[in-house]
Amino acid sequence: MNREALIMVCTCEMSGRVRGKGFPARELSSRMKSGVGWVPTNSMINAFSKIPATPFGTGGDLILVPDAEAEAKAEFGDGSAPEHFFLGDIRQLDGTPWECCPRNFARRALAALKEVAGVNLLSAFEHEFVYTGVESRPGESYSLDAYRRQGIFAEGFTAALRQAGAEPETFLPEYGACQYEFTVSPALGLQSADRAVIAREMARATAHRLGHRAIFSPILDPAGVGNGVHIHFSFRDAHGGSATHDPKDPFGLSPIARHFAAGLLHHMPALTAITAPSSVSYIRLRPNRWAPTVADLKRQDRGAAIRICPVIPGADVARQFNLEYRVADSAASPYLTLGALVFAGVDGIRRKLDLPSEGPPLSATLSSALDALEASAPAKEWMGAAFHNAYLVHKRGELAGLEGLDEKACCDLYAETY
């Protein structure tokens, strides 16, 4: 069969799904400038490929422009077409950023952090998922047997990650049935979210070629174990040095890190609508699931909303020192997650907020989290009125489509799409 290489340019939008448009690879040079045509209401397609409502209607034209720094390409050596795509920015026809572009939202947040605190964010997204290519067996948690039975998936996935520039670090069997976890190396700024998007897609691509699925849904069974996303983050100064650690602080936090964490805790009622943005996200965020239930910060506690991670004795403590945000999952766009966290932290730095003595319980449902987001004047300012409204319309439309379904049916539905 004769074949001609194609490339896709993609965005990871409000539903956390990666969507885009392909073009012949020979057109890459021109497409780096002109992009491909896009439509505002494309961003309102929800996780179930529905558009219950849209503030944009049927009008408007945009362009989706590839970023040369966000290219992913991986060959699988099995005769299949390679994975080859660029992540890009949604822009107006004149090239200016579209107000509802998730990637530009994260970029604006990172610029605000640098302006206010003079530091850059170093971060990494740690993912959990279920691989359908193994059967569940008693005693499989963290076991060599569970690692062995996934066969060549991990090796194929690792090779794809490395080809795509996502720098693989670890891969392991997790606690849940058929559940695995992987990490990639931390990166500065926007590249961290790019790597998170690319890594998920490489997992899906590898599983697809083996006749299986990598499922990133927040939870597959109401009585089971959830799939979280944990964002590790620290700060680097203008010279690349650590700006996160202060050994004199009770938590070991520098003033910047302390105020940033306080901002996250202060805004967490609204943040969770963005970082845990599905109906089933809140099944995972219940007691006794090794997941957060309170907006708190603790040292080396995996039940905390923000965890201060351990460091290896004798090594460079300041450079290792990092925090982990644990109220997130893969129903969220990494760009929206990163942007929301950074804007909330920047607000804490600006206002010199201190850590609360006791944090409030997290929202119990997506609906209540969306109410908190709607009521948050700072969040509306960070996102912009149009994006803030579009996001609320999008997510409430998603919830409306679940009316009448029990928790198991909701879990099944989300497992089909994520």
Structure description:
The structure is a single chain. This protein is α+β, with helices and mostly antiparallel strands and 418 residues long. The chain folds into 2 domains: 6-98, Ubiquitin-like (UB roll); 106-417, Creatine Kinase, Chain A, domain 2 (2-Layer Sandwich). Helices cover 36% and strands 20% of the residues. It has 13 helices and 14 strands. The protein has helices at 28-34, 102-117, 144-149, 153-163, 191-209, 255-275, 281-284, 317-320, 334-351, 366-375, 377-383, 385-400, 407-417; strands at 6-12, 18-24, 36-38, 62-74, 83-91, 120-131, 168-173, 179-184, 187-188, 214-215, 229-236, 297-299, 306-308, 323-325. Strands 6, 7, 8, 9, 10, 11, 12, 13 and 14 form a 9-stranded mixed sheet that branches. Strands 2-1-5-4-3 form a 5-stranded mixed sheet, sandwiched between helices. Helix 2 runs parallel beside helix 9, helix 9 crosses helix 11 (377-383) and helix 10 runs antiparallel to helix 12.
Can you give me a brief rundown of this structure?
36% of the residues lie in helices and 20% in strands. With 418 residues, the protein is an alpha+beta fold.
